[in-house]
Automatic annotation (TrEMBL):
<keyword id="KW-0735">Signal-anchor</keyword>
<dbReference type="GO" id="GO:0016020">
    <property type="term" value="C:membrane"/>
</dbReference>
<keyword id="KW-0489">Methyltransferase</keyword>
<dbReference type="InterPro" id="IPR053223">
    <property type="entry name" value="Prob_Methyltransferase"/>
</dbReference>
<keyword id="KW-0325">Glycoprotein</keyword>
<dbReference type="InterPro" id="IPR004159">
    <property type="entry name" value="Put_SAM_MeTrfase"/>
</dbReference>
<dbReference type="Pfam" id="PF03141">
    <property type="entry name" value="Methyltransf_29"/>
</dbReference>
<protein>
    <recommendedName>
        <fullName>Methyltransferase type 11 domain-containing protein</fullName>
    </recommendedName>
</protein>
<dbReference type="InterPro" id="IPR029063">
    <property type="entry name" value="SAM-dependent_MTases_sf"/>
</dbReference>
<dbReference type="GO" id="GO:0008168">
    <property type="term" value="F:methyltransferase activity"/>
</dbReference>
<keyword id="KW-0812">Transmembrane</keyword>
<dbReference type="GO" id="GO:0012505">
    <property type="term" value="C:endomembrane system"/>
</dbReference>
<dbReference type="GO" id="GO:0032259">
    <property type="term" value="P:methylation"/>
</dbReference>
<comment type="similarity">
    <text>Belongs to the methyltransferase superfamily.</text>
</comment>
<keyword id="KW-0808">Transferase</keyword>
């Protein structure tokens, strides 16, 4: 650890020194009269070689990370990629913590086809390296494109309109058969957010009734961690525009959202929401926002949600899960820091295998931001 830090420091010092030297080189060239092509001084070359050697060394020091898809084996344990949210990175500073991945990502031939490395990009983003550096190569595209609009956002997804090579499954049918709850089976999705099975559910008609009765219009919403975009799809039928943030963890979620005629944002949870202050009427946090997120990061997330919500806007925590004791001692006080009005607050035991094993509960809450602060 100390060794790596030392090397980082060395790298920094070398970079600063090189920059000062280049500046000196430039300014001394400006002063000299004959415009001869300047030779690169030996000491500058030496500095560059030191930097390259240090980067190579750092690259070898870090063990290569497993590809994102390979780490998603058991559904009961925490997906290792989600644990990576522990890296709090407000300004993409964690790119430098993963020189191996970054090196791999930037190792391409300019002006030709990009390598098939979307999983590398995904891994970097999940590790807090976002936005990624731009590249000058061409992304591969599928040879088949849809020729007509989807009839509804619940129409069967066209199988051939995306590249399947980074995924284990090669079709939406395969994904639906593997797990009908992933969001790719449109027969299942058609009824989501409409039914009321327990107090944890807040059907969209009831939500809209609630907002209407408090004279609060819902035009625009953000769905954080919205999977294949079904919330946006249901809201579209109500003429509400919803932008879905989604990652491509093991399946083509972004493409599915887009094929439904909805807008997917490829943004990780630790990223500042790319929306201006006070412009959104509703933010919904689905399953992705739960106890796996480190507390400090969650606090930043909720305060960023507050920033983008307009006065009187709503925060909807949908099936947020945590250990029962933590909800009372940790998360409830955190949520109440926002000083929102409690429109709905329902807690119930999480009855699946991991929920029972870990003594977890679900919380579904609808909270209203104060109209003015
Ligand atoms: C949505 O807008 C369309 C076109 O203006 C309208 O016909 C329809 O009734 C609206 N639906 C709802 C639920 O407001």
């Amino acid at each position: 650890m100390g060794f790596t830090m030392g090397l980082n420091l060395l790298l920094l010092v070398a970079m600063v020194a090189t920059n000062i030297l280049s500046l000196y080189h430039l300014s001394s060239n400006l002063q000299s009269k004959p415009p001869v092509a300047p030779p690169v001084p030996d000491h500058l070359l030496h500095q560059l070689q030191t930097i390259r050697a240090t980067i190579n060394h750092l690259t070898r020091l870090q063990p290569p990370a497993p590809p994102a898809a390979a780490t998603k084996k058991s559904t009961l344990s925490i997906p290792s990629d989600l644990l990576l949210y522990t890296h709090l990175s407000p300004i993409a500073s964690s790119c430098k913590d993963h020189p191996d991945l970054l090196y791999q990502y930037m190792n391409y031939t300019p002006f030709s086809l990009c390598p098939s490395d979307s999983s590398v990009a995904e891994s970097l983003i999940l590790r807090g390296c976002h936005p990624l550096p731009r590249r000058r190569c061409f992304s591969k595209t599928p040879s088949s494109i849809p020729t007509s609009l989807p009839k509804t956002p619940f129409s069967t997804l066209p199988e051939k309109a995306l590249l399947w090579n980074s995924y284990t499954c090669k079709s939406f049918t395969c994904l639906s058969q593997k797990n009908p709850n992933l969001g790719f089976d449109m027969k299942v999705e058609g009824s989501r957010f409409l039914g009321f099975k327990s107090d944890l559910d807040l059907p969209i008609p009831q939500f809209l009734q609630l907002t209407k009765s408090s004279k609060s219009v819902i035009r625009l919403a953000l769905d954080i961690g919205g999977g294949t975009g079904t919330f946006a799809a249901q809201m579209k039928l109500q003429n509400v525009t919803v932008v879905t943030t989604t990652m491509n963890l093991g399946a083509p979620y972004s493409e599915a959202v887009a094929l439904r005629g909805l807008l997917p944002l490829h943004v990780p949870l630790q990223q500042r929401l790319p929306v201006f202050d006070g412009v959104v009427d509703l933010v919904r946090c689905g399953h992705a926002v739960n106890r796996w997120i480190p507390l400090t990061m969650m606090e930043f997330l909720f305060f960023d949600v507050d920033r983008v919500l307009r006065g009187g806007g709503y925060l909807w925590l949908d099936h947020f899960f945590s250990k029962k004791a933590d909800l009372e001692k940790v998360f409830q006080p955190l949520i109440w820091k926002l000083n929102y009005r409690k429109v709905k607050w329902a807690v119930a035991n999480k009855n699946d295998a991991s929920g029972v094993k870990n003594g977890e509960v679900y919380l579904t809450a609808l909270l209203q931001k104060p109209v003015s602060r």
